[in-house]
Amino acid sequence: MLKSKHFFFLFFLTLTTSSCVFFRPSPKKLYKRALNEKPYDVIIVPGCPYDGNDWTTAMKGRVIWADYLIKQGIAKNVIFSGGAIYTPYVEAKVMAKFAEELGTPKEKIFIEDKAEHSTENIYYSYHFAKKMGFTKIAVASDPFQSNLLMRFSRIRFKLPIAHIPFIIDTLSKIDDVYPKIDASDCKVENFQPITETQTKRQRRRGTFGKNIKFEKE
Fold it and tell me: What is the pLDDT of residues 63-93, one digit of tens each?
């Protein structure tokens, strides 16, 4: 079982990073830049759905990478972002629990649970970070999502937002971990999935940040 899980995770990482040759700059180049610019006050980690059983490969990659960046001294703190979107579980709270099990210090973990789309993950977490006094901010996610969010994070905010997408060579060495959590207190009562509360058009707009009421900085 461990071998099959390990293979599946590596397959996911290979799939999500196989197009990275088309990304400019590449994840490795962005990581080297982060090493030169460290430490960041906080990294923003967008959420992933959780079904109440185990973390998905996408969530696993993002949480392990966040924990790695904290332990390597590249980031001082982490904001996990995401509400209960497709399942009754608040994504940010679930990811925070997994991070704690990996050994991320609890006092370095913050939760933003309003976001319903990736652009909102950035927007709400950015303003949360500013209120906490954090000024050096980065997004830590998979390469595909980082690539999609780079333009949005570059043009919408006063403070610069760096991107530190995960690197397959690094994660493949530390992915064989299977923490267990009790997510019962992350579950929302009377839950309605976003597919029932928003139309396809609204969800599409949300993907591009068009549901956000932007504040002036």
Answer: 999 999 999 999 999 999 999 999 999 999 9
pTM of the predicted model as reported, rounded to 2 decimal places: 0.89
- CATH architecture of the domain with range 33-207: 3-Layer(aba) Sandwich (3.40)
What is the secondary structure of the chain as a DSSP string?
-HHHHHHHHHHHHHHHHTTGGGSSS-HHHHHHHHHHHPPBSEEEEE-----SSS--HHHHHHHHHHHHHHHTTSBS-EEEE--S-SSSB-HHHHHHHHHHHHT--GGGEEEE----SHHHHHHHHHHHHHHTT--SEEE---HHHHHHHHHHHHHS-SS-EEE----HHHHTTT---------GGGBPTT---HHHHS-HHHHHHHHTTTT--PPP-
The answer to whether 144 and 19 have CB atoms below 8 angstroms apart is yes
